[in-house]
Write a structure and sequence with these properties.
two-stranded antiparallel ribbon, 11 helices, six-stranded antiparallel β-sheet, about 15% strand
Length: about 300
């Protein structure tokens, strides 16, 4: 059975002369105009929402039709089209037949996420983070063994840190680098450290593999990393990982300030705020919360 989902277009008013070109060339406000919406297509998409709500048990045709205002025949036809596109799957026979979401939606979701850069998602959240804590915030990714800053929001005031976009930071002495190391399989992290090096920058830099491995254990246990004057004297950094759809760390977010402005007793509270905001980025990417992601690494 096939369906033409544009039957409800008869209820639309046709664009006036010149409107069609305006529609194509405009800023998109016309696309939100009710006149340009196809009701039957909208209801077919409502079917997807209803099926999603039903979970793994699936939804019955009768319930779906009632829920979106379709007749059973129209709902069946729409479902047949969605099944043909892989957006819906059916299982069971006769009165026991039910409908679940199809794997084509997973592919489309992956494409949607890949089309949105990490920095695009992170920047508004970094602004919230900086406003809440009053510290410079950054987002970074691991690239060829080094932590690379891809976004930054400076703290208010005259203090500015050397955190230029694209700067490569050695992972053993930076907050973002250490939290990304801790999120890796330990053998991979140690191999990376041997490859890129772990030399001292200050008196507080951890330079032995044993000390670094023990620090990675602490990071994995508390879910955040601390750079306590390990890269630059007088500067501290707290970092938390960002997790993607596969629960792997895809980046890290951090806050940086002067040592005197973040005493040890305030570190835990600042880390809690940081993790709350890093969770927002992870969820926007389709990833898990930090607690869940770190549990998979124990």
């Amino acid at each position: 059975m096939s369906i033409a989902l544009d039957h409800d277009c008869a209820g639309l008013s046709a664009p006036k002369q010149g409107e069609a070109s305006s529609l194509l060339e405009g800023e998109g406000t016309e696309m939100r105009d009710e006149r340009y919406r196809v009701q039957s297509l909208g209801r077919a998409l409502d079917l997807l929402d209803r099926i999603a709500e039903s979970g793994s048990e699936g939804a019955r045709l009768t319930d779906l039709a009632r829920g979106v205002g379709f007749s059973k025949a129209a709902a069946y036809a729409a479902l047949a089209t969605l099944i043909a596109r892989g957006l819906v799957v059916d299982f069971g026979e006769g009165m026991t037949r039910r409908y679940r979401l199809g794997l084509s939606l997973l592919r489309l979701g992956d494409l949607a996420v890949s089309n949105i850069g990490l920095a695009d998602i992170a920047m508004p959240i970094l602004r919230d983070l900086t406003q809440e804590l009053g510290m410079t915030s950054r987002v970074a990714v691991m690239d060829e063994g080094f932590a690379v800053v891809i976004g930054r929001v400076d703290a208010p005031g005259a203090i500015r840190f050397d955190a230029a976009l694209g700067r490569r930071e050695e992972p053993h002495c930076s907050g973002v680098g250490k939290v990304l190391l801790a999120a890796m399989p330990r053998a991979d992290a140690l191999e990376l450290l041997e490859r890129v090096g772990h030399e001292g920058h200050t008196m507080k830099t951890l330079t032995s593999i044993d000390a670094l491995s023990a620090d990675l254990d602490r990071i994995a246990g508390r879910h955040y990393a601390i750079d306590d004057e390990e890269d630059h004297e007088g500067i501290v950094c707290v970092a938390a990982a960002i997790f993607g759809r596969d629960a792997k760390a895809v980046g890290a977010v951090s806050v940086t300030t002067l040592k005197q402005l973040l005493p040890a007793k305030a570190m835990t509270a600042a880390a809690g705020v940081l993790i709350r905001h890093s969770n927002r980025i992870s969820l926007a990417l389709g990833g898990p919360l930090a607690d869940q992601a770190w549990r998979t690494r124990r």
